[in-house]
Amino acid sequence: MIRSGGSANDVSGEKVTLLVQDIPEDPMDVKLRSAVSVEKASKTAAAPTRILFLDGVRGLAALLVVTQHSHEYMQDLNLGACAVDAFFVLSSFLLTMLFMKKSMKLLARSATYRKWAFTLVDYFSRRFFRIYPLFALVAIVLWILPDDVKRGLYRIEKPKDFSLVKVLTFDFDQRFFVFWTLPLEISYYFFIPIFVLAVLKLRNYWWVPFIPAYCWVAYEGWNTFRWSHMGLSAHAPTFLAGSMAAVIFVKLDTWMKMNNVRPRPVVIYAIRTLECTALALLLSLSFQGLFFNWIYANIAPQTPGFPFISVLLTIVVVIEMILPSSLSTFLECNALRHCGKVSFSIYLLHGFVIYTDTVSNQSSYYDRMFSTYGLTMLVATVSYHLVEYPSQLLAQYITRELAKREILGL
Which residues form the signal peptide (predicted)? Predict the structure, then answer.
């Protein structure tokens, strides 16, 4: 109704405020809405941003393992040992980096013990489904195959002693062929959360224990004999070098972003000089010569076994993470990245290809070469899509379910 003395336009121009009494929401509705938002966020979290050039490094390492086990190409070198060390370093580096970033967020939010428990369950479930399904499938296939085939394809000297239960539980005497690296990596997975939390607990003094730790890594690398089919203690310095490099990268990257640091040209030149020196030493150790023949002889003790490349590799990786160069661009090529994506299948399955009579008995060198690498890539790609990728999807599903249960309090 319009008051006398006014017009309809005057009334329409007035601001009218409606006071509506708030109706409290059901707590379960709030939790369900939160769970929906968490599910959307967890889908993004389940597929973290990939560091592309590290996929290339992993792919190159997988191809070097095939080269070493072919018993035909570059057999005067031990590139397979370098590749295994690269796998160890990359695994410890990436997992430490990811868990450290996650832990820093949880500490900043003063997360409850329950949240930490869900985080650890998610961490271990991802690691389990990344490795164990394909490993178990290969072990079962070997168990079914005749003894002669076991001996030929997977270099099992006493196939009658093959025990499926012992293989699946990583019994030391049943770590055949390439199986020996898996229990080492899985054992180190349990150490990473302890290592990360200890570093974060030290706050600004995190670097203090790194000084004696690097001294120990260098001493072990120079003086200790390491070979395949040894326990974790012999290869622990390699894993530790990757984890310490991850901490240094996270700390340095966080500091640079918080302070908006942009290195000056002279600093960049110094960093590139360090990277090139580390890369030159890495290649010289891997190929047992190069700059050691061209410039100066190797001063390190000439011990047999795996070459000591872990610290050099971490220097190159950390610098490329902070200041990418043409090296990381090269390693990001699609062919190497694809090899990196299917590297675990290449690692476990290449013996089924290169040791078959159809491939190894070919008279032509080039026929054997193309068959070795081409069929290995084909088998690994099929294995990835049939076994590895579904396992990763299952791990992502578990991550989303854990996020829902954590929010809903189940």
Answer: none
Yes or no: say if 384 and 366 are a contact pair by the CB < 8 Å rule: no
Output the pLDDT for position 244. 98
Residue type, 8: A
pTM for this model (two decimals): 0.86
Instruction: Kindly report each contact of residues 155-161 with a partner whose C-beta sits within 8 Å and lies 24 or more positions away, as own/partner.
Output: 155/351, 155/355
Contact at 8 Å (CB) between 192 and 92? yes
Mean pLDDT of the region 145-161 = 89
Q: Are 127 and 227 in contact (CB under 8 A)?
A: no
Dihedral in degrees, nearest 10, Cα atoms 352, 358, 364, 368: -10
Beta carbons of 297 and 219 less than 8 angstroms apart? no
Q: What is the DSSP string of 217-233?
A: HHHHHHH----TT--HH
Yes or no: say if 407 and 34 are a contact pair by the CB < 8 Å rule.
yes
- Measure CA of the first residue to CA of the last residue in the chain; give whole Å: 56
The answer on pLDDT for 23 being more than 80 is: no
Report CA 104 to chain centroid distance, whole Å.
19
Contact 95, 54 (CB under 8 A): no
Confidence of residue 49 (pLDDT cuts 50, 70, 90): very low
298 three-class SS? coil
